[in-house]
Every structure is written in C-alpha cells, then in structure tokens.
C-alpha cells in the first residue's frame, strides 16, 4: 500500500479501513464501469488511481472515504486529505460519485466530496476536468457553484454569501485552501467569470 512517504503503487484491498492509494481494484472497476467510467471517458482505467482517505466528519468523528483521481495526482490527494484530517478540517462525507448513479446533482445535494466522473461541464459540451480525474470537489453544499444569480446546488443559496465563514466553507487562507494551493492546485473560488467554491483542479504533465 502506498503512503505519502513511499512511491510504490499497488491495488488496495477494499475491505481495509486504512488510508492509501494505488491502482483501482477489480471490484471497484466493475462498480464504476458504465456509471462514472463510460465509453466517453477521455482517459484509460489504468490512468486512474483509487484513493482511500481519512477525514473528520461534521459529527466530529473520524471516517474513511474513497475517491478516484488521475494516478499522477493520487499522492497529492492522499496527502491533502491526511493534512486536513490531522487539522480536523470538517468534511461531511467522501464517497465515489457512483453511489449517486454518477449524478453530480445528487452528489452535491448529499454534500458529498468527490473527484472523478465522466461528464460535460454544466451547460456546455466540453468535458469537465473531473472526467480526467484532475479535479476534486469539497463540501458542495457549503461551497456552491455560483454563476450570476444561479447557485448549484439550489439548496446551497444561503452559502453564496461568503462574508461569514461557517462550518465546512472553504475560505481563502484556511486549511483546505492552503493544502491544495501549496501543491499547485487552483481554486474555483478565485475564478473571475463564475465562482466554484467547492472545486480544486490541477494540470498534469
């Protein structure tokens, strides 16, 4: 099992509660095929990694979650979540998007933090960076996507006002922001044309 201090990458047994990252186990490959991983997916299954992370939930208890990201970013994502765990940064839940039938809308409504999912950018034909496994969304209810007066998810309108920091909100300079930014990720909360407060992404070479 890979950790932040090693470079060996191997499949993780799904039954383990330990955190780590590696190639996607066969049963997880089966689970995501036809849902988040489709014929339209612009990367190969072998380009992706399965990441198990520790996090502190809104219940203030320790949990283990799972994400799929591009293999070149697996170490980053593992380290980021471990850093947030150590700092007790609250994250409500971390499940594969497949638990929500691949629906970004359902995942956001459940306040699920997720990563890989083959889909187009909302309202466009261009593939989202989530389709490449190079984007991560954190606490989408507290960190909505805001375009003008439109807020997604719609149930997160109260959090479009970023003047007052509340539990789960990502603010510039906080632990979540810093954990991603210092590793070269960009934050959707700093976009100009819209604000995607839940969204972090990183270009890969």
TrEMBL record:
<dbReference type="Pfam" id="PF13539">
    <property type="entry name" value="Peptidase_M15_4"/>
</dbReference>
<dbReference type="GO" id="GO:0008233">
    <property type="term" value="F:peptidase activity"/>
</dbReference>
<protein>
    <recommendedName>
        <fullName>Peptidase M15C domain-containing protein</fullName>
    </recommendedName>
</protein>
<dbReference type="InterPro" id="IPR009045">
    <property type="entry name" value="Zn_M74/Hedgehog-like"/>
</dbReference>
<feature type="domain" description="Peptidase M15C">
    <location>
        <begin position="123"/>
        <end position="202"/>
    </location>
</feature>
<dbReference type="InterPro" id="IPR039561">
    <property type="entry name" value="Peptidase_M15C"/>
</dbReference>
């Amino acid at each position: 099992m890979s950790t932040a201090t090693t470079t060996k990458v191997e499949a993780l047994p799904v039954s383990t509660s330990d955190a780590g990252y590696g190639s996607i186990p066969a049963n997880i490959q089966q689970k995501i095929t036809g849902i988040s991983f489709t014929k339209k997916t612009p990367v190969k299954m072998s380009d992706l990694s399965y990441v198990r992370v520790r996090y502190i939930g809104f219940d203030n208890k320790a949990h283990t979650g799972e994400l799929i990201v591009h293999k070149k970013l697996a170490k980053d994502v593992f380290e980021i979540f471990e850093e947030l765990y150590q700092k007790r940064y609250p994250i409500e839940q971390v499940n594969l998007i497949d638990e929500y039938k691949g629906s970004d809308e359902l995942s956001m409504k459940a306040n699920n933090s997720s990563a890989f999912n083959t889909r187009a950018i909302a309202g466009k034909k261009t593939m989202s960076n989530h389709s490449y496994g190079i984007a991560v969304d954190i606490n989408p209810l507290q960190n909505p996507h805001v375009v003008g007066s439109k807020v997604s998810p719609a149930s997160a309108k109260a959090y479009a006002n970023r003047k007052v920091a509340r539990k789960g909100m990502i603010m510039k300079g906080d632990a979540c922001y810093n954990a991603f930014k210092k590793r070269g990720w960009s934050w959707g909360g700093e976009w100009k044309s819209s604000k995607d407060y839940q969204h972090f992404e990183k270009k890969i070479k």
